[in-house]
Structure formats: C-alpha cells, structure tokens
Amino acid sequence: MKNNIKTATIISYITLIAGNVISIVYTPIMLTTLGRGEYGLFTLVNTIISYIYLLDMGLGNAVIRYNSKYMAENNEQGLKKINGMFLVLYCIIAVLGIIIGILIYFNLGNIFSNGLNITEIQQIKLMFIVALVNLAFAFPLNVFSGIIMANERFIFTKVLALIRAVLNPIIMVSVLALGQRALGMLIASTIFNILLGIANIIYCFKTLKIKMKFLGFDEGILAEIFRYSFFIFLSAIAYRIYWSTDQFILGMFVGAAPIAIYSIGSQFNGYFISFSNVISNMFLPKLTKLATEENKKELMSILVKISRIQFFIASFILIGFILVGKQFILIWAGEGYELSYYIAILLMVPQIFSIIQSLFATMLEAMSKHRVKALIYLGVAIFNLVLSLFLVQILGSIGCALGTAIGMTINSLLNNWYYKFKLNLDMAYYWKNIINLAWPATLCLVLGYMLIRFINPINYIGILLFAIIFSIAYLLIFWILALNKYEKSLIKSVFMKFKSKLN
Fold first, then answer.
1. Domain that holds residue 140
2. Is residue 58 in some structural domain?
3. Which residue in 33, 54, 181, 416 has a CA-CA distance of 20 to 30 Å to 8?
4. Which InterPro entries does this UniProt record tie to the protein (predicted)?
C-alpha cells in the first residue's frame, strides 16, 4: 500500500506538470482559432455548468467515506445497499440538473441580453445543450470514481487523470484542426469524459467485483450523509462564487471578449495555486496527528515550517510573474490581452496568503472546526459577489478582479482572527517568522527589475534566460539571508536526489 501511495503521488506530480505545460501550449492555439469572442462564450458555458454541478453537494466525499467505513467493518451487505443508494441519489440529482439546465436554457437570452448579441446567444445555447448532456452523465459516474478511491486504488485513478490531462487537449486541437469550433470541442470532450467514466465502471465491476442493491433509502444513513456533506457543500458554493461568478457577471454586463481576457488572467492564478501547493501533501499526515492531539506548540512549529516553505515557492512564482508575466502573455496570447496581466496580479497577490496557510484548513478539519471556516468563506464570497456587481459597471474586467481580491483579503484577515482569538494559536509568532522572509523577497523583486532592464526579454529565449538567472539569484539571496538549517537541508536533499538520478 505504501508503494501504491508513493507511485500515485509521483503520477500526480507528473499529471500536474504535464497538464499545466500542455495547457500553456494549447491555450494560444484555441485563442487564435476561436477568437476572443467565441473563447469567451466557451468559458462562460463551462462557468454556468459549474454552478449546476453544485448539486453534487459534497456527496463525492461521502461515497469515499461510507465505502471506507463499511469496508473496515467487513459489512458487505452495507456496501451493496449504500452504493445502490448513492447511484439512485446521483441519478435523481442528474434529472434535477437537467430540469434546472432546461430552465436556464430558455432564459439565457434574458440573462445575457445586455452583454451578448443575438448571434452569441444562439451560439451559447447550442454549446450549453452539449455541456448539459456531459453534466447529466457526470453525476452518476461520480459514484464509481468514489468507490475506486475508497478501495485505495490510487494508481488507476491517477493514471486515468494523467490520460485525461494529456489526451483531452490533443483531442481538442485535433477537433480545431478538422475545422470544428467551440461546439465541436464540447461534443468531443463529452464523448471523451463518458469513455473515461465507462472505464471506471468496468474497473469497479470487473476488478473490484462490486455489487449494488436497490432497496430504497435508509433515512438515518441519508440524514447522516447530508449532515456530513453540508459544510463541504457550503465551501463548494463559496469556491464557485469566488472563481466562476466573475465570468458570469462579465457576460451579463460587458460582453464575450472581456470574459476571454479575464479567463486568461484567472488561468495564470490557477497555475500559481497548483504549483505553489505541490509540497503540501507531504506534511498532511503529521499535521493531522498533531491537530488531533491538540499539541498547539508543536502544531504551530510545523505550521510555521510548512508556511515558510510555501512562501519560498509562492513568492518565487509571484515575483517572476510580476517581472515578466506581461511580456509572456503578449507573446503567448497575442496583442489585446495586456489587461489579463493586471487581472492575474490582482488575483495572485492576495492569493499568496491562502497558499502559505493552506494546511490550516487541514488543521481545522482535524479539530472538527471546519464549519466556521466554511461559513466565513461563504459570507465573504457573497460580499465579493455584491462588490463585483458594483465594480464591474465602473471598471469592467478589472472591477471583477478587484472585488475578488478584496474578498480574498478580508477572508484571510477573518481566518487569522479566528485562529488567534478562538483557537488561541500564537499568530504573532507565526507572522514574525513569515515576515522575516518578506524583505529578501522584496530585494529579489528590486534586483529582478534591474535584470530586466539589462536583458530586455521580448521573446521566449529572453524570458528563459531571465528565468535561469533570476532563479539562481533568488536561491542565493534566500540561502544567504533567509533560509534556516532545516530549509537548506531540504534544498540540498532535492539536489542530491536529482544528482543521483543523473548518475
């Protein structure tokens, strides 16, 4: 099992890197072929569908939890009943999703009459139908992916994720090369997703030998499941408000092209989050144990240790993007996307606080205190929505990004207030250790600006040359001025492993 987890983790990292690199290569092709308007509509359809997907209500986590529970108890009858119940539940949710989708379909013209023209509304309606079919299949298929995770068949799951990350963009580019556009991409994506879902079904019945019984609903278990899922559901709603509503608002008030511009900026924020959080998973088991034991002194020690590493990685990415992100976007996406750079900066700067404190969420779950965080998240997300609705009419795309940035900042402040005054964590000690890293990061930013004036990176080769020199300078400055013995030993171990691989 240890090798299973280790191999799955390696595959996860490969998937993350491959997925992001392929996305960086694939997005300009899609932008060039579709144009800003159609790419914006494509993004808008996916945004609307993501809201309907909230009907999942956290049941995906419940499938894993209750399958694991009954397997641990060797309760085969319970497994058959619970999986049958989950499949029926998801089929009901799929039907409900289709009904809601049909209602939305007939009102798309009214919703987006101020931002989209008649031709764009007709396009979005066609794409929405295909995306709705994809969603209807996705709900019941969730049961089978959850069962596989509960059985700890991580390698199969991660290999499938890697296949999705690599093949999906290749299929999309092939569709565009054949002369199809956004509608063709959605049809191909739907077929591909269904095929992957069928692979999960075959694996469950042929390899895992699962069985299902459809004997109605156990009201007690159903109530327990929904109690467990409720706060996960609240967090999911808040997440969607934060990261999907801005595109929806732009479609209502501004138009299709600004959605594309905003989406590019938001995409770079997504890269920032994914690369910055790669290291977190290695510390999850120890953090959970410390939180459960309520050893707050040692808990704070490990939180500081992890947060400093997160800051080291996140500030490197953020500063690098601040320095050459605009040039990269202009080369990568083309003229007319300058605003995407400023949108990305507005989203990324406050995001760094969430990144360095990413394991606090795990701590709260271990302490059974995650409800308060979910409520804070949802409350601030609603404030962000109202603020963005106001600012978009004054500042357009930048207004949406600014509203989200203000919301994220308030969310971080409220969470830190909760950590200090309700959980009695020593946040002064925590921030003192983090702030010690801020001035070397500022020095790197200043030196980076000087380096840009010398190199003047206006093409991919210039940006690559800057990245190499800046990376070396960044590591040297932090090594001399900021890193402690533990952090230096981590970097040394990475280099030693890399060296041994080369030999």
1. 1-217
2. yes
3. 54
4. Poly_Biosynth_Transport, Polysacc_synth
Task: Confirm whether 19 is domain-assigned.
Answer: yes
For residue 58, is it left (φ>0), alpha (ψ between -120 and 50) or beta? Answer: left
The answer to whether residue 419 is domain-embedded is no
Q: State the Cα–Cα distance between residues 189 and 171, nearest whole angstrom.
A: 8
> For residue 83, is pLDDT > 50?
yes
User: What is the DSSP track for 283-352?
Assistant: GHHHHHHHHHHT-HHHHHHHHHHHHHHHHHHHHHHHHHHHHHHHHHHHHHT-TT-HHHHHHHHHHHHHHH
Residues 6+ away with beta carbon under 8 Å from 343: 261, 262, 264, 265, 266, 397, 398, 401
- Residues 22-35 as b/e (b if ≥16 CB within 10 A, e otherwise) read bbeebbeebbebbe
Rounded Cα gap, residues 206 and 400, in angstroms: 49
Is residue 190 assigned to a domain? yes
Which own/partner pairs from 337-341 qualify as long-range (CB within 8 Å, at least 24 positions apart)? 337/261, 337/264, 339/261, 339/265, 339/397, 339/398, 340/261, 340/262, 340/264, 340/265, 340/268, 341/265
**Rounded distance between C-alpha atoms, residue 85 and residue 82, angstroms:** 5
Confidence grade of residue 26 (pLDDT, cut at 50, 70, 90): confident
* Distance, CA of 368 to chain centre: 23
Instruction: Write the burial class of residue 133 (CB in 10 Å: 0-12 exposed, 13-18 middle, 19+ buried).
Output: middle
DSSP code at position 163: H
Place of tokens 């019984």: 213
> Helix 219-253 crosses helix 2-52 at what angle (to 10 degrees)?
60
Q: What crossing angle do the helices spanning 256-276 and 338-356 adopt, rounded to 10°?
A: 30
**Predicted confidence band at 413 (pLDDT cuts at 50, 70, 90)?**
very high
* pLDDT above 80 (res 116): yes
Token look-up 């989050």 returns 273
If one counts every other C-beta atom within 10 angstroms of the C-beta of residue 6, the result is 12
